[in-house]
Automatic annotation (TrEMBL):
This is Chromosome initiation inhibitor. Residues 12-68 form the HTH lysR-type domain. PANTHER family: HTH-TYPE TRANSCRIPTIONAL REGULATOR ARGP (PTHR30579:SF2), TRANSCRIPTIONAL REGULATOR (PTHR30579). The keyword DNA-binding applies. GO terms for molecular function: DNA binding; DNA-binding transcription factor activity. The gene is iciA. Keywords: DNA-binding, Transcription, Transcription regulation. Gene3D superfamilies: 3.40.190.290, Winged helix-like DNA-binding domain superfamily/Winged helix DNA-binding domain (1.10.10.10). It comes from the Bacteria. The keyword Transcription applies. It comes from Halomonas chromatireducens. InterPro entries: ArgP, LTTR, LysR_HTH_N, LysR_subst-bd, WH-like_DNA-bd_sf, WH_DNA-bd_sf.
Amino acid sequence: MASAKNSENPMLDYKLLQALATVIECGGFERAGDAMGLSQSAVSQRIKSLEVRLGQPVLIRHPELHPTPAGQRLLNHYQQVQLLERDLRTTLPTLEESAPRLRIAINADSLVTWWADAVGELCRTEGLLLDLVVEDQDVGLKRLRDGDVAACLCASPQPIAGARCIPLGEMAYHPLATSDYIACHFPHGPSADAFAQAPAIVFGPHDQLQHRFLAQYGYHGSFPYHLCPSSEGFVRLALAGMGYGMIPRMMQADALMAEGKLASIAPGESLSVPLYWHFWRHSGALLERLTHALAEVSLK
């Protein structure tokens, strides 16, 4: 009897998995319903059905919405199935076709510098749509581990179970500020006293670039800083003389220094941050082609 029942009710109903993925992606049931063309109660019912079938919760609703460990495993599986289905449609064109979409965690500096040039041609030729989630280099991997994204760019070289990791190179950062700011706060160059008093600009609460730069000078104390979670805004704060910040050399730092708009508080010094591309194994040819395109990028 049990076997007959299981054959009539497959273990995985992908409409239910789609609901789970959409709730996490949209950050709530109401917005997930809007995205799926369903009512909020219909989405909630699909999640309940999935939890009944699984025999355990897939979502933690309070204090903030996030998947349980079981929900994370289902999201990982769903991400990979979506990619494999896309490959199947290329060999069976009579299947219903929809534009492929990849959800990727990426650091803001890569997004505003080299990323578009690296993936633009592939997106055009493949009709690929990207859903980009901006995260600091050090925390993007959590998105992948949680099943929220299919791939991520981050600073960690350690792959997670079921995923591959390849190095893409390094991004160089320079500690830049206006000449007036430097004359005021660093008249004698970098020092512990200056670091303790001079306002810095930090991208977000998880951003460790500033701390790593200060550690190169043996300074591990506290320092005043502005929080600015925008790459463009970050540079504008520096240009306004509000602080010094770690600005990527590629397409930003070199040009700003050449134009005399910003200068280094420590001439000749920089910080190199490695970038690694993490993606699920067995996720299909499309992700492999994207990986190949990224592997051709020359970072410095």
